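During the reporting period the student researcher (J.K.) took over the structure-prediction task from the postdoctoral fellow and processed the backlog of single-chain submissions. One of the processed entries is reproduced below for the supervisory committee.
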Amino acid sequence: MLSSLLRNRTHALLLSGLPVLALLGVAALAPLPFTLAQPGSTSDVLGRHQGQEVITISGAPVRRTQGQLRMTTIVATGPRTDVDLADVVDGWFRTDRAVLPHDSVYPPGRTDREIEKRNIAQMEESQQDATRAALGYLGRSPKEVKVTLRLADIGGPSAGLLFALGIVDKLDGDGAGGDLTGGRTIAGTGTISPDGTVGAVGGVSLKTQAAGRDGATVFLVPKDECAQAVSELPGGMRLIPVTTLKDAVASLRALEQGTKVPSC
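J.K. obtained the following structure tokens:
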């Protein structure tokens, strides 16, 4: 009798488990409110992009630079791309993927075209702010020095710091001489305000991977995002925290001269 009861109980448990399994199966296929991101492209702001100089300057002498200053990006699934449970679980266990809340990447209630226009507008604003920050740091008048920045197919504000450093390097206005890069491949990320303040951007652990893939040995990161950047830092890469454009220039000069450089 006992064995019969156990068999019946087991049967009942198995039957009651079927709806749970069915729900899990549906959940695995149902779209979830997440976006998946991975390391994107990098571009040398001291060089050329799609056949054009990224930074062109008129109204002041421009020096020939060595080394590279590479701005970094991440690539996210599209605003209408479905992400299911299997995608999310896979992203959690991979170091070259990140699972982000959908609304943190794509503002809700906006069309694809509106999102694209927003990203382009943010990039254009970051270029203007980078120019103001660099010329302000160098004590140059924007009425005398004209800076044009060209970087197609990249959206958002996170290249601001690298644009500003590229302008400073080309003008060599701080009088220190020599490349900011010291001939190295330097990468980084960070927004910048007209007064030179560097802001956080997100996705830095993916950006360090993109930088390492493309040959960078040094990465400039907004100081508040040091912990995130350290978490997946490629081997052999040096991480330098920055809070202002002045900090970033000073750190790169110290690195070139072999003196003490802050680290995360």
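The committee noted the following: The domain at 39-82+113-257 is CATH 3.30.230.10 (Ribosomal Protein S5; domain 2).
J.K. will present the remaining backlog at the next meeting.
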